[in-house]
Amino acid sequence: MAVPVALTIAGSDSSGGAGIQADLKTFAAFGVYGASVITALTAQNTRGVSGIHLVPPEFVTAQLDAVFDDLDIVAVKIGMVAQLATIEAIAATLSRKSPAHVVLDPVMVATSGDRLLSADAVSALRERLIPLASLITPNLPEAAALLEESVASDETAIASQGKRLLAMGARAVLIKGGHGQGSESIDYLFRGSDMIALPALRVATKNTHGTGCSLSSAIAAGLAKGETLEQAVRGAKTWITAAIEAADRLGIGHGHGPIHHFHQFD
């Protein structure tokens, strides 16, 4: 049987902890073959982003066409899209190719606080990419930014935001609770009229670089392997929690270090 194939469309992280590099590590950890389309190069390490070089949109399209014309892409993960023209290029290609699963991680700000999406591109993200998504995976600040609201501080507010994000056109929404408070980090999955709470103990570590990228890629990997959405989300949540718990064993860099993508092989 052929190995399932997943595609990541994202920016490159020169330090290897997030972006394309984290996505490909995640696919490999799940036994999925990973292909990539790079939207931007970043000069970046665990302390922050010192430069961003955008890939021309027409070359993003060329990469997409090359991959889709040859590989059997089952699931697509979209991360850093950087600019308006790139969003248009991605949306046009995905509308033509119609992959079975699209997981959109609306990356706007890096763990370090550096902005990764231009302000004029946020509305295009809402209008062009969210309606194509099987699932969007915003954290609490990203959910608030997409809705132009304050960050939700309790479950009632999260439930309200989740339902309104669904109304933007995605088939499902996962609001991640890593930026919340308390002893548990609770993610909330919204689909139709359902809301499923997915709790995990909050891990006390600064080494969380690439967490969002890796979680969305883990979900895409599960979908590529034929899992249901809920199975893929639950499996990804369990895996990412273990990867964060093991992060301190790596000792990479002097800032927000990466999670341990291959913790299960230690």
Written overview of the protein:
With about 270 residues, the chain is an alpha/beta fold. It has 8 helices and 9 strands. A 6-stranded mixed beta sheet has the order 3-2-1-4-5-6. The protein has a 3-stranded antiparallel beta sheet with strand order 7-8-9, sandwiched between helices. α1 crosses α7 (about 210-225), α3 (about 85-95) packs parallel to α4 and α5 (about 140-145) crosses α6. The relative contact order is 0.16. The mean pLDDT is about 95.
What brief labels describe this structure?
single chain; alpha/beta; UDP-N-acetylmuramoyl-L-alanine:D-glutamate ligase; three-stranded antiparallel beta sheet; 8 helices; about 35% helix
Task: Specify the overall morphology.
Answer: globular
> Average pLDDT, to the nearest integer?
93
Beta strands, count? 9
Question: What fraction, in percent, of the residue positions are helical?
Answer: 25-40%
The neighbouring-strand order within the major sheet is 3-2-1-4-5-6
Gyration radius, in Å: 17 Å
What can be said about the biggest beta sheet?
6 strands, mixed
CATH superfamily: Ribokinase
Order of helices and strands: EHEEHEHEHEHHEEEHH
**Structural class designation:** alpha/beta
Q: Could you say what the CATH topology is called? A: UDP-N-acetylmuramoyl-L-alanine:D-glutamate ligase
* Through-space gap between termini: 28 Å
Number of helices: 8
Number of domains: 1
CATH architecture: 3-Layer(aba) Sandwich
